[in-house]
Amino acid sequence: MQTILTGVRANEEPTIGNFLGAYKSMVNLANEHASDSHINMFVPDLHSFTTPIDHSKLYDQVIKGIKYYLAAGLDANNPNIHIYRQSRVHAHSELAWILDCFTYFGEASRMTQFKEKSEEHADSITVGLFNYPILMAADILLYDAKYIPLGEDQFQHLELTRDIATRMNNKFNQELFTIPAPEKEQVKFMHLEKGLRIRSLVDPAKKMSKSSTNEKSKISLSDDPQQAYKKIMSATTDSEGVIRFDMINQPGISNLLTIETLLTDRDIQDVISDWAGQTSYGDLKRKVAETVKNFLADFQEKVSQISDEEVEQVLARGEAYANSVADQKLALVQKAVGLRK
Ligand code: ATP
Ligand code: MG
31, 123, 126, 270: which has the fewest Cβ within 10 Å? Predict the structure, then answer.
């Protein structure tokens, strides 16, 4: 059985970018493939403090992250769906160390996300921030995951994972790891034309990020729906004066059209033709703001109905499964590198 795997780091409140790029893709794929694939959805909680966070909030944020997965539509009663915390599966950290020793400093240094994040957090660039793509490689390779629904920003890390896995398979002359599918195949598997990148509402040249300190740039899943409505109304657009889908010249407008399409489960071409030739950015914003507001109200209602006890039960089952699979893979790698007979 193949494995489809993804996770959303619990640091700040997830945004609709995370929802659309990761949660929703995963729920769609689970609906399509859970009868004959393992669906692993985990919270990468060890990744949470590669950049500074408020540690007193972390535990609750992780539990909330699990509630979000369930509210997004993952069916925890399906025996092929596994929900777990990275920190409760010790093999992630152990494999990450081994992979570290087969990853070149030069290749890890090329990661653009490290460069970007180290500019943002110039006063606290940790080794953990540098190292996190290798922990991410361990997260994927432990389970032989072939498909990893991700946003566009993570494809470079996926490529690194493929390189490390190929290198180790060659060096030890065996299929230690399944090589995850390349970007093009991943995107096709998600039924997309290219990787998804929801833009910042303030600067649509950038992606929406949950760790952004500019509240206006992002819609968080816990935002008050009326506040979210206002954020969409004040989103940066352009001065072209006509509604077109053109990510290069009109990224703000195109971003709004993308959000509308994905939240309403429509076809992008249909949404584009609804607005073709129209000139009122205010009308478009009102429509998208209404969609976002309704989405948040509905989503938050679902989250409020999930109890902590339910989360504990889901995690107990998911973590038992994850440990059994990950321990076997770790033992295989330990044998290959000479730590076990
Ligand atoms: P941070 O600012 O803390 O890095 P983030 O918003 O980039 O937060 P991550 O936890 O790094 O979120 O990523 C979780 C998942 O969400 C990944 O699959 C990532 O590709 C996806 N994702 C993040 N931002 C976007 C976005 N703007 N559009 C689409 N997908 C996104
Ligand atoms: Mg990120």
Answer: 123
